[in-house]
Amino acid sequence: MQIEFDRDTCIGMFQCVAEWDGFEKDMDAGKAVLKGGEETEEDVFVAEIPEGKELDAKFSARSCPVDAIAVYDDDGEQII
């Protein structure tokens, strides 16, 4: 399972940080950071969701008020 984060879309509400420790606050930029995320295109980061953290990652994606976070299953289908 993978998570994708569009940092450009992020408005810095940090609700994702409250839901999952896979995100952290970047107070200087006023945006969240996806820990261990690999930049796949400008300001878009992707990371594997660790086993056992899938539910937290899903809550994190659902909590984003601007839909900057997407979750994909192992087949590459977007589920959130």
From TrEMBL:
Keywords for this protein: Electron transport, Iron, Iron-sulfur, Metal-binding, Transport
Signal peptide: none
Superkingdom per UniProt: Archaea
SUPFAM superfamilies from the UniProt entry: 4Fe-4S ferredoxins
GO molecular-function terms, A-Z: iron-sulfur cluster binding; metal ion binding
Annotated TM spans: none
One Pfam match: Fer4_15
Keyword Transferase: no
4Fe-4S is among the record's keywords: no
Protein name according to UniProt: Ferredoxin
Organism placement in taxonomy: Archaea, Methanobacteriati, Methanobacteriota, Stenosarchaea group, Halobacteria
